[in-house]
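Reopening this ticket.

The earlier resolution said the output was attached, but the attachment link was broken on my side. Pasting everything inline this time so it's all in one place.
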Amino acid sequence: MKLPKFKYLEPTSVKEALSLLGKEGSAKLLAGGTDLLVNMKHKIETPSALVNIKRIEGLDYIKNEDGAVRIGALTSLKKISQDPFLKEKVPALVQAASKVGSYHHQSMGTIGGNICQQNRCKFYNQSEWWRSTNGPCLKVGGDICHVVGKKGACYSTYCGDLAPALLALEARIVLQNKKGVKEETLEGLFSGKGLAPLKMKPGEILTEVVIPEASLQGRSSYRKFANRESIDFPIVGLALWVSPEKKEYRAAFTAVDRRPLRARAVETFLNQKDLTEERIEEAGALASKGAQLVKTSLYTTAYKKKMMGILLKQALKETTRGYRS
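Inline output:
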């Protein structure tokens, strides 16, 4: 499949990139391109221009500053997966990065690009010819969501690996536009809307991810269930952060909703309690609470609910080994 025609732009600074985005109304940022270029070949994204930000210096780094870890948006997934400090302090993020695609995907893909990827759906992520047999879905200009057979809302699913790990670590992000720089929660980036999964405004660039000092003190894990874990997107992914001494728990899922999802019911149930085998089982039963599961892949919602509970129980047992009652 060929890429559609587009204008190629290559800024050397964030300021120049912002200026180009402002001039090109339907331009898209190109970082690794492992998600965007495939979508363009399928003609489900057809930007007038690609603004390649890979040559911008100063956005590829991992550093410890005032106790927090700051990661530049252009830092590759391979670099994250091999960093000794991250392996020790935030293994969930390292595990998530190491489970994205193949070696080449990890070498090309960036933390910023992985966070900002498009939602996925069995009716959306197909060739133009395949989609023509059903008629276009809502996300590609049609008037109906084929998943639920209704108009008005798109139920495509967010399937990124890194976002749940970063949510469990309570990471923040730095966004830059022509007016300046702002820092906000990563959770606030996601709209929960399939048509426009991100709340980023036009002409805005994610430049940095910040993991707070407090999240470096706990234990964490990322688990992924997929057809082929070294290649495929997750069918269900789970990130867990635990402070066994403080009895604090944070859990987040991917591939179960229109946004990466904090498992608030699980956290409320577990926090400030001793962790027993019985309580782990009860937490597993709560895993899918709050998720808006729909059949956007070949797997049934019942099966995905079951896997959410299994992954959570596995992660709880792994991260609290030696601390359980």
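Reporter confirms the inline version is readable. The longest helix spans residues 301-319. The radius of gyration is 20 Å.
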